[in-house]
């Protein structure tokens, strides 16, 4: 339980003390004390409106917090991405329920989304005094805005005002519905007023209100993109309109006595309650499709729900994380922009969801990828990442006016690594395509030609150097991980040919290249003195935990003496030449190799979970390693936050670091749990 005194000036909330809500278009980060700390609207890659997590003064926030000392608890409703924050003290208990509504069926993109952020405040015991502040900071806190109060004709039977925030490129309005859920109880009074935060660097007025609520009183705030009003005629609720919105007709009738321009429903408590239930039903129905029956099911389901939030429904693209520029080391410079679609991250994400039976997401992403294959670079290559809309342009910009989380500068948007040569992406992509056509939709001839050309490109370029998975900003090298994944790309192409009997004029060349590449890796990446596979052909004395992928992609048997020797060296502490500290694994030793970035970082969650899976596979033949895998996985779960979410890295002190929610981490958590549970069950361990 977290205890906070609101009379003390608020500092940065730790990265781990946040949860996420989303609607498959964008996502919002909600802190443990009830503040919206990160929110880009309408899409993942839109400029932020709230970014308090990156600048506690001028980043922008939407907070609902008690005015007296309180304790907090936070949880998701069961099998859902609806968040509940509970404030408790001796006088009363308050629930703040946050969600971005989902009102269409899964995969039904014809239902236009409601770009609403809904925050429901309800006292469930005693009395409570709270303060609401809504302080948007448009376009990453770079744009000025105006704030005005207007009559709110969207709330049925009430004569109240709403707030409109208007910036050059976006208009939002803040409305509310107040109600009493118990008989003979008055509706709560809500008096919103201006709030001047110009001294803190805000470029337009905010608003605030103080609420005094008793048990049974409820206020729901709705922050939304203003609907366009261009003289459209009034419309009554019809079945056609209900189908277009993806909302049952009876819900429209309950929520509106009439409809206004652009399908803008009149609000009342019944309509909001129906939106809540439709959203809760959506998430429950989705997670029920999971086929996972193994151990650690709660952690696996939460990871699946988190991964689903990273999917941009209109195109099927998957973002690496909905946040940006959260530091990999407090005060450091490794602060990167992640609301883009990496081929690597996306492929691993779909691999994990396929394992759980979610093939629809894989089919949607593969369509996104096939569109990229139809628009390759002039030399036949793919970019390592794209925008969620399929664009190639992601210029890296530093926002020098933002202080960064706990002073961690620079704050970056865009990503300069977009034009890197990272040849490993072809292996991750081909593995995803192989699994997608195996468990989802088979490849047609036209798509097979695209895939075949991709493998031919790999065959022609597999001996070139690159910048590999960690996106180093130094010199190109022959990274071992990249060579392994290039082998995977060719191997999966061969598997598809063999399984589907598809035409392949270069079949013999593929076989020869794959086998030669294997021999090359075993010769040039192996350090016979240290008895480890090194980070690259050029630096075999540098250890890199990315080589743990070898048995996971079936490059090498997990009991192979060379791999086991490498694994055991990685498991040693950094002081003894390894990469493991407190059962957590570093990517590599930043003091031993120049990655062109500089600064420190924490242990990498992805690498820890790869290590768990490598230990699991090796543990089938060496039981003490399986015991170590179980202990390491159980230890890792302790570092997930209070609602079961994971970040990218973990500090020496056990604090969460990097962007949150991190897709890569939840992907490998699912994979590690799946294989560990299956192995333990099979061996009756």
UniProtKB/TrEMBL annotation:
Keywords: Hydrolase
Organism superkingdom: Eukaryota
InterPro entries, per database record: 6-hairpin_glycosidase_sf (IPR008928), 6hp_glycosidase-like_sf (IPR012341), GH15-like (IPR011613), Trehalase-like_N (IPR045582)
Gene Ontology terms: biological process: carbohydrate metabolic process
Domain GH15-like residue range list: 297-673
Gene3D superfamilies: 1.50.10.10
Residue stretches making up the Trehalase-like N-terminal domain: 13-148
Pfam family, one: Glyco_hydro_15
GO molecular function (one): hydrolase activity, hydrolyzing O-glycosyl compounds
SUPFAM superfamilies from the UniProt entry: Six-hairpin glycosidases
Protein name: Glycoside hydrolase family 15 protein
């Amino acid at each position: 339980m977290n205890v906070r005194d609101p009379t003390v000036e608020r500092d940065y909330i730790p990265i781990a003390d946040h949860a996420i809500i989303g609607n498959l278009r964008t996502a919002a980060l909600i802190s443990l004390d009830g503040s919206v700390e990160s929110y880009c609207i309408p899409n993942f890659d839109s400029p932020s409106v709230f970014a308090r997590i990156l600048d506690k003064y001028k980043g922008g926030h939407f907070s609902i917090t008690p005015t007296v000392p309180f304790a907090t608890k936070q949880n998701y409703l069961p099998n859902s991405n609806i968040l509940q924050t509970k404030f408790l003290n001796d006088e009363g208990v308050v629930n703040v329920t946050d969600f971005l509504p989902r009102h269409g069926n899964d995969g039904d993109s014809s239902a236009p989304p409601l770009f609403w952020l809904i925050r429901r405040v309800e006292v469930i015991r005693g009395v409570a005094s709270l303060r609401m502040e809504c302080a948007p900071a448009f376009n990453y806190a770079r744009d000025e805005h105006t704030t005005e109060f207007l009559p709110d004709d969207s709330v049925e039977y009430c004569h109240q005002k709403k707030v409109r925030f208007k910036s050059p490129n976006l208009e939002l309005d803040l409305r509310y519905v107040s109600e009493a859920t118990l008989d003979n109880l008055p509706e709560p009074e809500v008096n919103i007023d201006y709030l001047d935060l110009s001294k803190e660097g805000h470029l337009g007025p905010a608003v605030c209100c103080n609420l005094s609520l008793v048990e049974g009183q409820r206020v729901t705030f709705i922050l939304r993109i203003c609907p366009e009003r261009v003289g459209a005629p009034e419309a009554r609720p019809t079945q056609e309109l209900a189908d277009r919105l993806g909302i049952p007709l009876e819900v429209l009738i309950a929520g509106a006595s009439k409809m206004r321009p652009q399908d803008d429903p009149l609000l009342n408590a019944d309509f909001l309650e129906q939106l809540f239930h439709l959203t809760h039903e959506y998430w429950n129905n989705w997670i029920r499709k999971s086929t996972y029956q193994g151990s650690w099911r709660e952690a696996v389901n939460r990871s699946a729900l988190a991964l689903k939030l990273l999917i941009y429904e209109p195109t099927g693209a998957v973002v690496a994380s909905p946040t940006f520029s959260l530091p990999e080391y407090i005060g450091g410079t490794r602060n990167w922009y992640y609301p883009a679609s990496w081929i690597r991250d996306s492929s691993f994400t779909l691999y994990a969801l396929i394992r759980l039976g979610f093939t629809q997401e894989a089919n949607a992403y593969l369509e996104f990828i096939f569109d990229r294959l139809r628009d390759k670079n002039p030399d036949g290559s793919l970019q390592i990442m794209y925008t969620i809309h399929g664009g190639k342009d992601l210029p890296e910009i530093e926002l020098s006016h933002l202080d960064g989380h706990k002073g961690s500068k620079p704050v970056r948007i865009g990503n300069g690594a977009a034009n890197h040569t990272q040849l490993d992406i072809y292996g991750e992509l081909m593995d995803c395509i192989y699994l997608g056509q195996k468990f989802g939709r088979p490849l047609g001839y036209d798509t097979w030609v695209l895939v075949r050309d991709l493998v031919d490109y790999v065959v022609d370029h597999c001996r070139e150097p690159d910048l590999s998975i960690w996106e180093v900003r130094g010199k190109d090298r022959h990274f071992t991980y990249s060579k392994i994944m290039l082998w995977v790309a060719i191997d999966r192409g061969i598997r598809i040919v063999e399984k589907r009997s598809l035409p392949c004029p270069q079949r013999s060349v593929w076989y020869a290249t794959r086998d030669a590449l294997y021999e090359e890796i075993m010769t040039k990446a192996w350090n016979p003195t240290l008895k480890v596979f090194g980070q690259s052909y050029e630096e075999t004395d540098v250890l890199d935990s990315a080589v743990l992928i070898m048995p996971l992609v079936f490059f090498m048997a997990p009991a192979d003496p060379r791999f086991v020797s490498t694994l055991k060296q990685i498991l040693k502490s950094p002081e003894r030449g390894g990469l493991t500290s407190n059962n957590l694994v570093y990517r590599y030793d930043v003091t031993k190799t120049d990655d062109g970035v500089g600064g420190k970082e924490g242990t990498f969650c992805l690498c820890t979970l790869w290590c768990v899976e490598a230990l699991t596979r090796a543990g089938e033949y060496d039981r003490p390693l399986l015991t170590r895998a179980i202990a390491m996985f159980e230890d890792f779960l302790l570092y997930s936050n209070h609602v079961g979410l994971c970040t990218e890295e973990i500090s020496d002190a056990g604090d969460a670091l990097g962007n949150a929610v991190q897709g890569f981490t939840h992907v490998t958590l699912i994979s590690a749990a799946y294989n560990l549970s299956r192995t333990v069950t099979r061996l009756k361990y």
